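Q: Could you fold this chain for me?
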Amino acid sequence: MLAHEGMGAFELGTVTEIFGRHRPDVCEDWYRLSVCVEDAAPVAVLGGAELRAHGRLDDLAAADTVVLPGVADRHGNPGPDVVDALRAAHARGARMVSICSGTFALAAAGLLDRRRATTHWRYADLLRERFPEVEVDPRPLYIDHGDVITGAGGAAALDVGLHLVRQDFGAGTANSLARRLVVHPQRDGGQAQFIESPVPVEPDDDWIGESMAWALANLGQPITVAVLAEKAMMAPRTYLRNFARCTGTSPIRWLNTQRVQASLPLLETSTTPVEQVARAVGFESSATFRHHFTELMRTSPAAYRAMFRREQEPERHSDDHRSRRDRPADRLKA
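A: Sure. Below is the predicted structure, expressed as structure tokens.
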């Protein structure tokens, strides 16, 4: 991770908590985190603290995954040495990850030209103005192109971190880590649900949440908007309107995403036929399952399972999976 002057302690803490803390009860084979700075001088952190780090730009350029937290100056560019280190890391196959306004640093290094990218919704217009070659999308919590991943602001650092763990170690490990962190393994709805609007919070929100919790506990059953509306004690049209207001998406899109996510551990850890997996998570047919799986994961269920079979071969070295360039491209969490 690159630490820089004026950075916030939240993203620093989130990255170190996810990638720097060894938890043998979650996974024995874990990441080796190095916090890097441009030179040996202490870095001022928001709140009056100073950070002294041992890592340097050479370490960053040689890393398998590079994480860039939000930058303090969104109107300026990182220094030429930092830009060179970012380009060198990407050129040798590192996975480049930005959080919040860290996307500005990736854009300044030219790593986002003609690619979709996200950042905190408040900074989307500035990112679009400063880097017109970047296709800015402020809606998702993160966008994954395989080699470059951009994340939204604030607590989306947790979403991005758990997404990386899920890619590298599987859904079971990511879920275990989420339980340790006391967070949801995967949020839905994107940033749309957090963008400032004059709509006040209403009591109906609790009923929407109750219906969603019921759906998660009963994914294998047939679930329609009418059923969800009944659980929330609303008319279907009222439910649709309130669901979109609360989550930024539709009930069916949310439900399909949850079912695809529920299928991942089955594909990763079992040999259950795809048709049975589809039924187990509530899809009416394997064709419907494959359609929604491919739409969300940018690969087929069979290819996804094969990827995990390859990664779990005994001869796999512990570091091989951290700089993969063949993972499904442009995974969009929205």
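A (continued): The mean pLDDT is 85.
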